[in-house]
Amino acid sequence: MRKVPANDYKLYVPWARQNTANNVYPCSIAEGLQSGDIYVNDGPQIDAVFFWHYCGFGYISGKPSYQMLNDIYEKMTSSHSERRLVLITSDDDVTDFFRDKDVQMDYRAEYTYHPEAKNQATVNAAESTQFHIEQINPANISRIHGRIIPSFSWDSPDRFLKDGFGYIALDRENVCAVAFSAAVSSDQIDIGVETHENYRRKGLAAILTNCMCAAIVQKGKTPVWAHSTSNKGSMNTALKCGFVQDRINTVIRKSQRGTVQ
């Protein structure tokens, strides 16, 4: 497969929009809002497009050839790769290709937003919380630490502050939870959330998620939510905040055998 020049990314917005597993991550690249790479199959006719987001998530639109899938597998397993590659797909043919490969497979739940399903008690909790809620800004972004934070999916704080946004919960000077735009397109925003282990089970994830949803809707966009099916905490937060599960995607990543997780 061959890499597409960044100047041509917008030509692949229709391919990003037709992705059957997810739209916001492929569109975030094609629309130029976040960093990532786009590849197409070799040959004069384009049959498939591969979107590889800065965070490592990869999505295939169209019908990839055996050779294209093998190229993706080599990128996934290469020790020289510039970043991880986690392939997320709803295509059974893609999943079947990887079944006999040295990969790890699991599943990712995808949700649609239905504000009428929101738990009103969670909304009320935001008004009475003892924690201070504030928007992420240049003065506080460097104080946010963890794994699922803006640096997970944005290549620089400046770019996040320009095209993304989020909220933090503060206990005095301690940042105890964060919710932010993990992926941004012209019509959707995927929400990423992390709570410090010392502040879990206090409802902070749901409070910040509701702040995000309200702001996303005000921007005229749709909130998006997804998580590993094993992440029950994320599932509970989603259900409290008006998200309804609508499908399960397959997640394919490099095998972790012989490594410490």
Describe this structure in words.
Helix 3 links the parallel strand 4 and strand 5. The radius of gyration is 19 Å and the shape is globular. With 261 residues, it is an alpha+beta fold. The protein has a twelve-stranded mixed sheet. The chain has helices spanning 13-17, 24-30, 66-77, 92-98, 120-128, 150-153, 157-163, 204-218, 232-240; strands spanning 2-3, 36-40, 48-53, 57-62, 86-89, 103-113, 132-135, 166-171, 174-184, 188-195, 222-228, 243-254. Helix 5 (120-128) packs across helix 8. The longest helix has 15 residues, at 204-218.
Can you list the strand order of the major beta sheet? 1-2-3-4-5-12-6-11-10-9-8-7
Shape: globular
Let me know the CATH homologous superfamily of the largest domain: Gcn5-related N-acetyltransferase (GNAT)
Number of domains: 2
CATH architecture of the largest domain: 3-Layer(aba) Sandwich
What gap, in angstroms, lies between the N and C termini? 31 Å
The fraction of residues assigned to DSSP E strands is 25-35%
* CATH fold-level topology of the largest domain: Aminopeptidase
Uncertain residue ranges: none
SSE pattern: EHHEEEHEHEHEHHEEEHEHE
Helical coverage, percent range:
25-40%
Q: Which tags fit this structure?
A:
about 260 residues; alpha+beta; Aminopeptidase; about 30% helix
Summarize the structure.
The chain has 261 residues and is of the alpha+beta class. 29% of the residues lie in helices and 31% in strands. The longest helix has 15 residues, at 204-218.
